[in-house]
Design a protein that fits this description.
Elements (H helix, E strand, L loop, with lengths): L6 H32 L3 H27 L5 H16 L1 H62 L4 H14 L1
Helix pairs in contact: 1-2, 1-3, 1-4
Length: 171
C-alpha cells in the first residue's frame, strides 16, 4: 500500500474531479429547471438549493471514497470547483436558454391540457357556490324565525322565565 501518491496518480484524480465537477454543474441545471417549472418563490428556491448541496455532498463523499480511497485532498476539491465553473460559464449559459425554452414548453402544454378541466371544474365550482349561498341565506332566515317563534309563545320555558322576571320587577 502506497501512502504517498505519485504525480501521475494525482493528475489522474484531478482530471476525474474536473469531470465530476462538470457533472455536478449539469445536475445544478437539472435542479434549476425543476425549480423554474414548479415554483419561483424564495422559500422553494432555498429548499431546492439546500437539497442540491446535500446531494452534492453525498455524491462528493462517494466520489472521494471510490477515486482516492476516502482521502480528502485539496486538489480534488479544487478540481470539482473548477469543473463546475467550466461547465457553468461555458455550457451552463446555453443550458439556461434551453431550460427557459423547456419551461415555457412545459407550461404551455400543461395549460393546453388543463384548460378543458379548468372550464368544467370552474363551472361546477360556480354552481356549488350558488347553492352554498342559497343554503346560507335560508339558514339565516330560519334562525331568525326560530328566535321569533320562541319569543311569541309565553308558555315556553324560555319565555316563561322572562315573564316571571318582568312581573317580579314590576311589583
Amino acid at each position: 500500500m502506497d501512502y504517498i501518491q505519485g504525480l501521475a496518480e494525482q493528475t489522474e484524480i484531478f482530471f476525474y474531479s474536473l469531470g465530476f465537477g462538470f457533472l455536478l454543474g449539469i445536475l445544478y441545471d437539472v435542479f434549476r429547471t425543476l425549480r423554474m417549472i414548479i415554483s419561483r418563490s424564495k422559500g422553494f428556491t432555498f429548499f431546492m438549493d439546500l437539497l442540491y448541496f446535500a446531494v452534492c455532498a453525498v455524491l462528493t463523499f462517494c466520489f472521494i471514497l471510490v477515486v482516492d480511497s476516502g482521502k480528502v485532498r485539496i486538489y480534488v476539491a479544487l478540481g470539482e470547483a473548477l469543473g463546475w465553473l467550466i461547465y457553468y460559464f461555458s455550457f451552463g449559459a446555453i443550458a439556461i436558454k434551453v431550460s427557459g425554452a423547456i419551461v415555457r414548453g412545459v407550461r404551455s402544454a400543461f395549460s393546453a391540457i388543463s384548460k378543458p378541466f379548468r372550464r368544467i371544474f370552474g363551472g361546477i365550482g360556480r354552481k356549488f357556490m350558488k347553492i352554498a349561498a342559497f343554503f346560507k341565506k335560508n339558514i339565516r332566515k330560519s334562525d331568525k324565525k326560530t328566535k321569533f317563534i320562541l319569543q311569541k309563545h309565553r308558555s315556553i320555558v324560555y319565555n316563561l322565565n322572562r315573564c316571571v322576571r318582568n312581573n317580579f320587577n314590576r311589583k
